[in-house]
Amino acid sequence: MTIYLPIAELPVAVFTIFAMGLAVGFISGMFGVGGGFLMTPLLIFTGVPPSVAVASVSPYMAASSFSGALSYLRKGMVDLTLSGVLLAGGLVGTAAGVALFAFLRRMGQVDLAIALSYTALLGAIGTLMLTESVRAIVRARRGTAALVHRPGTHSWFMRLPLKMRFRRSRIYVSAIPVVALGFVIGLLGAVLGVGGGFILVPALIYMLRVPTQTSVGTSLVLTLVTMTAATVLHAEANGTVDAVLALVLMIGGTVGAQFGARAGQTMRPEYLRLLLGLLVLSVGIRVAADLVRAPTDAFIVAPVEGPP
Amino acid sequence: MSPPRASSPPLVGRAKPGRAARRSLWALLAVLALAGTARAQDGAQDRAEDRAQGGAAERAGHRGEPVVLSLSEREVLITTSFSGAEITIFGVAEPMAQDGPQPDVVVTVRGPEQTFLTWRKSQVVGLWMNTDSRAFRDVPGFLRVLSSRPAALLAAPEVLRAEQIGLDRFPLLRRAGPDPADAAPPDPFRAAFLRIQASHQLYQEDPAGVTFIAPNVFQARLSLPGHAPIGRYEVHLRVLRAGQVVGEARTHFDVARTGFEQSIAAFAHTNGILYGISVALGSLVVGFFANLLFRKE
Question: Taking CA atoms, what residue in B is nearest to A251?
Answer without folding.
Answer: B286
